[in-house]
C-alpha cells in the first residue's frame, strides 16, 4: 500500500507544533502500525531528517506505552486493540492517516507523539500500600473471595494505564483508570484496611493532576483496549460516597 501520513511534530513542550505530511510506499498489510512508523523513521534517518518520536515498549499490547490518536480514534479504528497490535490491513491503499499524541491537560507533550503520563504514577502513589500481612504466596483458595468480586477485581487489574480513556474523554477525565486501580484492591480482602483512605487519596491526586470531571459520556470504555466497563466508575463513586459520608476509623 501507498499511504499519506499526517503526523504531529513538536520539538518540545514550548514549541507550538504542527502537522507534517509524509508519503510512505510499499507498506505491507501484515505490518503493525508501529512497524510502519519504524519504516518511515528509517527512511527519514537515511535522508538526514529527524525521526518521529513515539512511545513503545513490549509491542504485545500489555504495557500501554504505544498510545496514539489515529484518525481521531484512540489506538485506531479496531476496538479492543492497542496501537502496537493494530495491523495495516485495517487501512486501504491511498488512505490518508492522521497521527497525533494524546490530547489532555494532564498529559503534556514531550516531543512529537510522546506525552508525559506521570500523572498516572502520582495517582497510583496516592493509593498508598497494603498493610495486610500477606507473607509468601498463599495456597490456592486459602482466602475466600466471592466469585463476582474476584472476576471484577481481575477485570480491573487488566488496565495497562495507556491513557486512551483520558484521550477519548471530552472532559479529559482519568476516572476509568483511577476506578480500575481503586476497584482492583477494593474488592479483595487484602485491600480492605485502606479501602476508604485509598479512594480519597487517589481521587484527590486525580483532581490535582488536572484531569477533568467524569460526566459518564462513555467514550472511555469505548476505546479501552482491555474493555474495562463503565460500571467500574460506579464502584469508585460508591466507595468515595461511603468514605466521605460515614465516619470510619481509617478515614480522616
Automatic annotation (TrEMBL):
Ranges of residues in domain 4Fe-4S ferredoxin-type: 150-179
Keyword terms: Iron, Iron-sulfur, Metal-binding
SUPFAM superfamilies: 2Fe-2S ferredoxin-like, alpha-helical ferredoxin
Cofactor section: [3Fe-4S] cluster; [2Fe-2S] cluster
Pfam families, per the entry: Fer2_3, Fer4_8
PROSITE patterns (alphabetical): 2FE2S_FER_1, 2FE2S_FER_2, 4FE4S_FER_1, 4FE4S_FER_2
InterPro entries: 2Fe-2S_ferredoxin-like_sf, 2Fe-2S_ferredoxin-type, 2Fe2S_fd_BS, 4Fe4S_Fe-S-bd, 4Fe4S_Fe_S_CS, Beta-grasp_dom_sf, Helical_ferredxn, SDH/FRD_Iron-Sulfur
Domain 2Fe-2S ferredoxin-type: residue ranges: 18-103
Family listed: Belongs to the succinate dehydrogenase/fumarate reductase iron-sulfur protein family.
Protein name stated in the entry: Succinate dehydrogenase/fumarate reductase iron-sulfur subunit
Organism, as annotated: Micromonospora fiedleri
